[in-house]
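Let's practice the habit of predicting before peeking. Look at the sequence and jot down your guess about where helices and strands might fall. Then scroll down.
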Amino acid sequence: MTHEEAISITGPIADHFLAEILQLQPLAGELIEAVARARGVEPADMDLAPAPRVTRLCAILEAAEAADADPLALEERD
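Done guessing? Here is the structure:
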């Protein structure tokens, strides 16, 4: 997955969070699922628990959202 592909799925995201995502080498479907779950959308076809990589992607996306909402939270995470 390229930088541009990831951004097209996640929308704007800080570079270090994007780097974490890309390090996991997710498939597009995994990142799409993680974005949906992180935003609280549980489509009907997501009945099963998320795969471990999707769970990690969700954590990264939620941290990015928290950092956007409270920049001081980013300092505490580092």
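How did you do? Residues 3-77 form one domain.
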